[in-house]
Design brief:
The radius of gyration is 15 Å and the shape is globular. The chain is an alpha/beta fold. The chain has a four-stranded parallel beta sheet with strand order 3-2-1-4, sandwiched between helices. Helix 1 runs parallel beside helix 2. Helices cover 37% and strands 15% of the residues. The protein has one domain: Rossmann fold. The longest helix is centred in the C-terminal third of the chain and has 15 residues. 30% of the residues are buried.
């Protein structure tokens, strides 16, 4: 995105409200998910994120932000449109974080177009 949004990387200051908690955020690599992950880590939570292959570099940026806060970070690649994967995602997060207290179902698709009438049927179906 241009300009690059502020997800709290330099502005959000935590106060320890989630110390000892464990969170899973789908779509935690960008947008609202990324902002939630940064906030959770700065509040003291360990965080697992889920992401798609095309978002690999963003996911690892977020992992580094979590680790910079001294928290455990887990990145789990996969598509939540696959129900079997969803079961594995939660199981992996529980195993890697030693429990789970918070779940944020945030993953979504977006397609930038000048107008909604410019969306293709495929884009519309993936977004809505």
């Amino acid at each position: 995105m241009k300009p690059r949004p502020d997800h709290g990387e330099t502005t959000y200051k935590g106060s320890g409200r989630l110390v000892g908690r464990k969170a899973l955020v789908t779509g935690g690599d960008s947008g609202i998910g990324r902002a939630a992950v940064i906030a959770f880590a700065r509040e003291g939570a360990d965080v697992a994120i889920n992401y798609l292959p095309v978002e690999e570099s963003d996911a690892w940026e977020v992992v580094e932000l979590i680790r910079a806060e001294g928290r455990k970070a887990v990145a789990i690649l996969g598509d939540i449109r696959d129900e079997n994967f969803c079961s594995r995602l939660v199981a992996n997060a529980v195993r890697e974080l030693n429990g789970l207290d918070i779940l944020v179902n945030n993953a979504a698709m977006q397609a930038a177009q000048p107008s909604i009438v410019d969306l293709t049927s495929e884009q519309f179906d993936s977004i809505f």
